[in-house]
């Protein structure tokens, strides 16, 4: 049977549009600090899961406007996954007025990137607090540093990686058409965000492609049309999902 998703062997260029201005791969410089610490300052240990069974983890990647968040909601409903958005977890922590939340807010306000270990700690805490054993991690890892930190701290890799492939022009149109977009959403800022996404995410996607974990999904079409492509992936993976 011909599949409308592809398990890929190569992902360069990242986006499918031949007109995309982000086809050129920016050189990526790894700057990962070897030791990540826990709250008490001791080195983080590998394999944090206290669950009896290692969870099934799907990383969900795609540029702004690719529709990955919408599809995550449908996957969660149809297949019983818990949807964890890295961005939502950071915002939730900020709104809690905790010391950790204040640090996150200060980091973002200064235009800096929240340390990988902080985001992973939030993801870990959420996963440990939920009885479900199937997780969609949306928008993370955003970079090779994130990926390496996640695998180092958790001791696990994702079972699969969903990459929602969408032409740049289509993503720009979708973001501009959102009723509740970011205050700085305009063509120039959106294209800058797409360039950053491509530069940081391409190494992650290529790594997992080499590991045979990436499912590249054509994200063009209606929500239901795209979900039918997604459904085929999960139907094919049902033996892995217990």
UniProtKB/TrEMBL annotation:
Binds 1 Mg(2+) ion per monomer. ATP binds at residues 65-70, 178, 221. Catalyzes the phosphorylation of pyrimidine nucleoside monophosphates at the expense of ATP. Plays an important role in de novo pyrimidine nucleotide biosynthesis. Has preference for UMP and CMP as phosphate acceptors. It comes from Nelumbo nucifera. The lineage of its organism: Eukaryota, Viridiplantae, Streptophyta, Embryophyta, Tracheophyta. Pfam families: ADK. Consists of three domains, a large central CORE domain and two small peripheral domains, NMPbind and LID, which undergo movements during catalysis. The LID domain closes over the site of phosphoryl transfer upon ATP binding. Assembling and dissambling the active center during each catalytic cycle provides an effective means to prevent ATP hydrolysis. A ribonucleoside 5'-phosphate binds at residues 91, 112-114, 139-142, 182, 193. This is UMP-CMP kinase. Its cofactor is Mg(2+).
């Amino acid at each position: 049977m011909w599949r409308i998703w592809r398990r890929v062997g190569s992902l360069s260029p990242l986006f499918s549009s031949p007109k995309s201005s982000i086809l050129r791969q920016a050189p990526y410089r790894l700057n990962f600090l070897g030791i990540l610490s826990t709250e008490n300052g001791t080195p983080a240990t590998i394999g944090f899961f206290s669950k009896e069974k290692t969870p099934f983890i799907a990383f969900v990647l795609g540029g702004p406007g690719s529709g990955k968040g919408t599809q995550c909601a449908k996957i969660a409903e149809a297949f019983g996954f818990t949807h964890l958005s890295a961005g939502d977890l950071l915002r939730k922590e900020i709104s809690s007025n905790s010391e950790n939340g204040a640090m996150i807010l200060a980091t973002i306000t200064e235009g800096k990137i929240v340390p990988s270990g902080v985001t992973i700690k939030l993801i870990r805490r959420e996963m440990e607090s939920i009885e479900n054993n199937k997780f969609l991690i949306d928008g993370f890892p955003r970079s090779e540093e994130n990926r390496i930190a996640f695998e180092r701290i958790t001791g696990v890799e994702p079972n699969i990686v969903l990459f929602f492939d969408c032409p740049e022009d289509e993503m720009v149109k979708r973001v501009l058409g959102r009723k509740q977009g970011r205050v700085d959403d305009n063509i120039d800022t959106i294209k800058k965000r797409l360039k950053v996404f491509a530069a940081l995410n391409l190494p992650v996607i290529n790594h997992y492609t080499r590991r045979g974990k990436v499912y590249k999904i054509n994200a063009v079409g209606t929500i239901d049309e795209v979900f039918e492509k997604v459904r085929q992936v999960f139907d094919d993976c049902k033996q892995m999902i217990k």
